[in-house]
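hey so u asked for the seq, here:
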Amino acid sequence: MRVVADRGILGLEDLERSGFDFSFHSGREIDASRVQTADALLVRSITRVDGQLLGGSRVGFVGTATSGCDHIDQNFLASASISLVDAKGANAQAVVDYVLAAIAQFALETRCEPREYAVGIIGAGCVGGLLDRTLRAGGFSTLCSDPPRAEAEGSDSFVSLEEAASCSIVCVHVPLSENGRHATKGLISSQLLRRMPRAALLINPSRGGVVDEVAVAAHLQNDPGFRYCADVWRDEPRVRAETLESAWLATPHIAGYSEQAKSAATRVLLRALVEFARERGEEHAARTLSSLLEQAPGRGESPGEEPDECSAAAIGGGDEVATRESAAVWQLIAQHFDLRAIDTRFRVAAVSGLGVEEFDALRVPLKSRQELSCCRLRSSVGLSSDDLMLLRALGMQRPAPSASGEAAADTSR
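ran it, structure tokens below
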């Protein structure tokens, strides 16, 4: 069975003994000529999958290592009886880490305590739902808006878009859709932005077209303290200079990038590929690949490796940590996932000319990022019980026991 795959999908290079004939290409170079004789196609969000790509090919299976599917013409796939599998939810924890890193940067730069604010979450699917649970477990109050879910499940657990937008911190986690009663293109409009308090924070790790970038620039004229954290862009990978200038934090579509997220997405696709092979009568290839998957480590498992360690006491700015309550936890998160450093590299690259290759190159190093849940506190000195509750909600491991069997630091501090 011949499989054409984006070489950027983590872990596929280890499948030479899988019984499948893999052909790897850059996702932006996958075209009709390359998929003509393929049975299956594995892509990321940078490959447009439609009739122009697959028409006349023998492809019967498409797997995308992404949560969103706006790069795929699902109507065409259905009409051509081509199976589609996505990796919805595989990157949820990675995106939650990104949101908390943005909030941490916000806390440090504005010298505020974010847990004093309500967080509005627009879109309560795999990512938004996990963010809601994490924030509430970590001491935040939240307001969730998800009109499709509210319509289907009842409105008791949800608020209106306007009410969610009235929070001082608003996070957007919706797919991009242009049609239907719940279309999301331009959802974050000038009208919704005016609902936000002054000097609010808007975080968008979903899709660029969901936020009206022109409206954001105009909103800043009336509210210079407004902060927009943008990980996605309307014309991505090309980013308009004025849009980049409007962003307080700008990153190159890496919110869902982590080693754990990429590995989880790959496993989802390969398990589905096993079933597709069985349906096609390729039992030997299916058994071989299934065996390889069983031998591979699962999410968060790294045989022979200890978790990354971090300590609030080791973070720079010690005087401030000692005098400012709760600063330590935000410094710890911001140091582990330094969005300001990524922002700086992004802006420097944009000045030199940000083309497709430059945009993609900025993303590559983030594939090996370790999620907070794979890290362990070396010491809890400087962290309050509320801070430890937040880190526990993010999945961070507690300090390793000392030789005497006690924790490395008093966790009640």
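Residues 299-305, 313-325, 403-413 have pLDDT under 50 and may be disordered. The longest strand covers residues 2-6.
lmk if thats what u needed
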